[in-house]
Amino acid sequence: MLLFGFTTLGTRVVASISLAAIALGLSSMNQEAMIFNDCIEELRNDNSISAAVNFCNGGK
């Protein structure tokens, strides 16, 4: 019975760590999206939207 309790506790710890890792990954993706959108907004005034997207993706 004690082994079952430790196994359950261990799986919950692993699940919690996995969820925290996913949350951190999503927050960095959100940061990258905001930076990309800012880049588009800055370049959109001078160029077409497709040219701004191309530049922000690393094009010339």
Describe the structure using short key phrases.
single chain; 60 residues; 2 helices
Report on the architecture of this protein.
- With 60 residues, the protein is an all-alpha fold.
- The chain is built from two helices and no strands.
- Helix 1 crosses helix 2 (49-56).
Q: Helix/strand-derived class?
A: mainly alpha
Radius of gyration: 22 Å
Shape: rod-shaped
Total domain count:
1
- Show unreliable segments: none
Mean of residue pLDDT values: 89
Share of helix among residues? Answer: over 70%
Percent of residues in beta strands?
A: under 5%
Tell me the span between the first and last alpha carbons. 65 Å
Can you count the beta strands? 0
Biggest β-sheet: count, sense, barrel? none
- Helical run tally: 2
Could you spell the SSE succession in H and E letters? HH
Summarize the entry for a quick read.
With 60 residues, the chain is mainly α. The protein has helices at 2-44, 49-56.
List the helices and strands and how they pair.
Blueprint: H1 2-44, H2 49-56
